[in-house]
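ok so I'm stuck.
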Amino acid sequence: MSRKDEDRVLHGLHYYREIIDDEFTVNSDQILWLAAHSYADGTHWFKDDDFQSFDSTVVPIELRKKLLLSKFELPLRYLHYRRLIQLRRTGEETVGVAVTFAGADRAMRLHTRMGRMDVWYRERKDGFFGMVTTILLSVITTLVTLYLVEHLQRGADSPRLIYEVEPKSQP
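replied:
not stuck anymore, here's the structure
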């Protein structure tokens, strides 16, 4: 399980309907499909009036439980714990899912590359890499600003002052 799997699942769940707190039922194979595909593919999860799904019957039975635990149960439970989705168990391999307001907000950020960068930075801004990134961005901003100011001052025609020296009057 990784944060990327959870984010792809959340993104696909939100872009299925884009309605907040509206519950719908999904099964494990459909969630596995979301976890295995990119954000762009996740927007096309509901195709031909049906959810796309992964065929878990090709996975050996001894590995299927581990696969379902790592790619179906844990991501959904973690998203529920973080209050990004509401989760209700409806069967052995089916759940009722509703995306919350916080989940919809995060899913909308994950929809674009800049939004994913923003999410990445917000999650790491309190750690060492966040501090280094902040310092690096501030130094780059300072250098660009100084360059622009110097460039504008060189290009601007400043008025020339001409000093005329009058002859001193004789007493």
